[in-house]
Every structure is written in structure tokens, then in C-alpha cells.
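Margin note from the TA: students keep mixing up input and output lines. Inputs are the sequences; the output is the structure of the whole complex. Example:
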Amino acid sequence: MTEPLIELQNVSITFKSGSALRRRPGVQAVAHVSMELNEGNLVALVGESGCGKTTLGRLVAGLLRPTEGAVLYRGQNLSTLNREQFREYRRSVQMVHQDSFAALNPMRTIFQTISAPLQRHGLARGRREARRQVAELLEQMGLTPPDQFLDKYPHQLSGGQRQRVVLARAMTVQPRLIVADEPVSMVDVSLRLSLLDLMAQMNRQMRITFLYITHDLSTARYLAHAGRLAVMYLGSLVEYGPLGKVLEHPRHPYLQVLLSAVPVPDPKLARSRKPLPLRSPEMPDPTKPPSGCRFHPRCPYAEEICSQEVPHLRSMDDRFIACHLAERIPEWHLL
Amino acid sequence: MKPESVWIFDTERDKRPLLSVQDLVVEYAARQDTVRAVDRASLDVYAGDWMAVVGESGCGKSTLAYAIIRQVPHPGEIKEGTILFDGQNVLELDRRALREFRWKEIAIVFQAAQNALNPVMRIADQMIETVVDHESRPRKEILVHASELLRLVRLEPARVLRAYPHELSGGMKQRVIIAMSLLLNPRLLILDEPTTALDVVTQNYILDILADIRKKLRLTMLLLTHDMSIVAKVSDRVGVMYAGQIVETGRAEEIFYHPWHPYTRGLLKAAPSLIGELGEKRPIPGFPPDMRNPPPGCRFHPRCSYADDRCSLEEPSLEKVDGRQVACHYWQRIRAEVDHD
């Protein structure tokens, strides 16, 4: 068996707060997450804001170090990599952020932006060769004809076009994994699908692994319908499995609540759907996470054990789930 | 049946528009070029209705909202058109009348309004200040009213009135803002992307609260959003906005199940959803127009699969058909196709 591209082993990270003299309780943004990303996977990581999904993405991309547990790249613990190996890993894992405008230098043309890494890594010799390669990348990213884009500045492009430029720049170093954090949430509705299509195509044709981080279950379904879905709540992974099956038959009470609240673009359906009730509408303070299962104060099914013991992610049928009562949670369907 | 529900669901023809925007033009003058953010947009909002205007970023919907209360930010300016509220021309109001008009007739909840709360003032004081700015009323009376409104948005007045904004969650702050907007008993509440920065669970909760408020206070609502799913959940009527113009209006069921304008059709097909066939989803080709230099003829023609020469030369007008409105030369062809599907 081949090794997973990335493996998270019981990873936690705590952000300290306060000053050195007056320590305040830190925030455990990610708590005991274990997860594998295999070459060619398409994984959607969803959760509400503040659930730790971006932090998890940054751990995967090597931009943060875990306070507990280990991140493995092709079987090797990141903390044991030497400088050369770490550089190679950082090259293989690229990150794409929500705000494409902030990600691009406004003073540089698209050609300058994309050719910089090519020249730095010695992947293109001479300006003409660099221009040819950049044009080819732009074309692959659907920015055609490339001549129309090469000498433009970021502000001259639309959000969707800029995000394609960001993807093209990430592609210059031939990454194996792209961590895409809300890449379409600032892009116009009419253009979101084509950007998601592009990522799906990159995954299919170039076998680039994608970790798609989003709060939006509808775009997660669109992009990763053949991939997997990971659901986070307050720093923990609560359910993880094949996206189609997980959405069709969600088992974790939190995912059921979340899905019942997602609006659908159909008036009759939208008005007939009833959101599942929560015991409390408010998210708890992340500096004082609840004991046991972090969802228990809001969970409609919580029992005594839920406030006492942390549920671990365990395998159940076709997926993984972190819920003491998983076997007894009533079935719930989208429609 | 209670009389109020009869009032809300009155038949179409007995209704008159509470707000009527006709051929409104709003321009922003930049150094070199002028941007027409709203370009002869027309829209009727009927009393008791929940109207939604849906469109993508940059289509002019926020500018439209600002224009309705005559608060277009500098360097924007209302150039042409009329805005009638209950028969009164808003564009002719003098300063004093305008002050009365805002908050008392129309209140507005802006996008990410949570951040508009004053961080160093308790909620109670902010609510009192809002009222006192407009009319003299004893503190005690204002607080009683404020408490009622806070309960209406499902907040505990005893706790919230004493709180500073940082002590409240984003969803709670948004509910405070909604309660504040109602302090002067407006007849029309404009909601500009009221739930965009919030999570779906909170979003759903707030939409429920808004629906509840509308019924209890007999409010008319105008919601501006980019999200078709939210429109589907709450609105009675829908206006679709593209490149500064209203291109289609109709009842929610008509817009969602029988769209006539190719852009409306495109938006629906492009909206990712948890339900329905993924294979039927399609992006709209091309990009939204550069508003400094919009295309001639129909604004949508460069992205439209039905477009021909006529569309690039001749601008379609907003035609009234069976209580709906549509601005497309070929809407009949599309109607036939949609009905066939």
C-alpha cells in the first residue's frame, strides 16, 4: 500500500493568549484530529466560522506547527524533516485563500507574478521561455486568450479571474496538494461553478489532491460529489466519509442540524423544510469549550455520558463519526 | 382568521405599491469616467409584501437601497427618476422631512451591520440615543419599548440592554440591530444582505425571526441579496437585478419555477444546491460587465445564449405581462421553452 500524502495523527493546536506575565486561557482551535489525505483525493472540509477549519488547513500546509500530535508528509513527520525536505514539502503543498486581491501584488502584472516562482526555481530560462510557460498556465486555468491577461494588473481583473491567476501561480511549482480555503466565497455566483469545475478538472486530469475548506455545504457537494466530506465543530472532526453517502444520510446530530438549516433555492421546498431544533442557538465560548463532547450543550439528544467523555472518531459502516450515541441517533434525510 | 393575515395575503389587484421606484438613475463620478450604478431601474414594493431584489455584487442593489433613503455615499448622486413612498416623492423632501422619513417610514439594516454598534456604549444607551435623535420621549418609555422589541428578536432584555457589543455574539448583535431599526415604528424595513456574515444555523434563525416580526408588526420588507436560496425561503415577490437594471419581477414561484429572463434562468442554474441534479448546474458564461463601459443594447447580451444582433443594438424595455415584468426581446421564446421543460 502506498503511504498517504498527508496524515494527521491526533493533531491539536492551542493558541496562547494574554501576555507572558498574565496568561489567559488559550484557545484549542483544533482538538485531536486524525485524518488522511491520499494522492488524488478531493476532500471538502466544512464547518461554521470559528470551528478551526482554516487552522486545520494551515496545519496541513505546514504554516502552523501542532502543539500535540504529528503531521506526516508521505509517512515522514514534518518535525523531523531537514531543511531541504521541508522546502520540498512546502513546494508540494500550496495554499489558495479567499481574498484573491490580497494574495496578489497590485504593482505587478500577471506575467510578473506568475513568472517569479518559475525563475526563482530555475524552471524557466529566459524571458521568452517564461512567457510561453506562463501563457500555457493561463490557458490551462481558462484565462484565454492568455495574451489578453499577461500584461494586466490584478485590479483590472474580476474576482473569478484573479482567483484563476492565484491557481496558476500555485501550479508553477507543480504541487501535489492544494489547500483551498474558501476560494469561491468572494467570487460572483454566476462564476463560482466554473471555478469549482476548474478545480475538479485539475484534480481529475493532473491528479492534484484538493482540500477544499468552506462553510458552504452546497459548493462542497458540487465540487467533491465523488470525494469525501469532513465536518468540523469547535475544533473537532465530527463526521468524515464519502460525500454522497454522508449528505444523503448524515449521522452526527450536528451535521443533521447544519444540513437542516442550509437554505435551498426552491420556494416550496424551502418553506416546507423544518430546521432541527438546537437546545441552544448560541455557539459556546471557544476559550471555555464544553467538557466531553463539545456539541453536547446544544445537542438535542445529549445524555450524561456526552458531558463526561470525549467521543473519539470511530469507524462506523461507510464512514467515521465522533458521537457516543451514533447507533441510536434517529435517521434524518435531506428531503 | 385574524384580520391581519387577511391584510398580509390580500389579492394582488387590491394592493398598491407602498414604495414605487421609477426609472431611477444613480451615478458615481470618478476621476475619468462616470459609473452608472443604477440605470433606469424600476421597482414596486407592495404593502405587506416581502420583496427581494436579487443580483450579484456590483449589480447596483446596495446603491438602490441607499438611494431609496437618499443616502447615496459620495461621490454618488441621484440623477433621474422618481421614488414614491405612499404617494409622496422622496426626492422632493427637504432636510427636516427627510430626517423624519428615515427610521420613521423606512428603516434599513445594512450588510455586516453588527459592526455598526458603538463598542463603548451599552446597548440601552445606543437604543435611547437612536430614539432621542428623532423625537423627545422619556427614557423609561423608550426602554420599555426597547425591551419589547428585544424580546421580539428573541433576546433577553435584562441581559442585553446592560451589555456592551463585545459581550454579544455576531448573531445577537445582528438581532440587536434589527430591534433598533424598529424603534421608530417604520412601515418599510430594508435589509441589505442581512445574514451574509453569519453561519447558516444563525442565518436561518434570524430569517425566522424576521418572518415573525413581519407578521406581528405588519411590516413591509425589502430584502437585497445575492443568494437565491434565501430569496426562496422568505420572499413573496422577487426582482432580479443585472448591471444596474431590474430585468425581471414576479412572484417567487413564477421567478423560480418559470423564469422568463435568460439571466434569471442562468442564476438559478448556477446556484449550487444541496438538492437536485448536479449535472443540470451550469455557470453563466463570460463575466459581469465593467460598469464604466457597459455593453450596448441589452446589458446581458454578451453572456446570453439567446442573443442575436437585435440584442446588441436595441435595449429591451421592462414589459408588463400578467402581473410580471420582464426586459428581454425574446422572453416569449424562453417562456415556451421553460413551460415545455
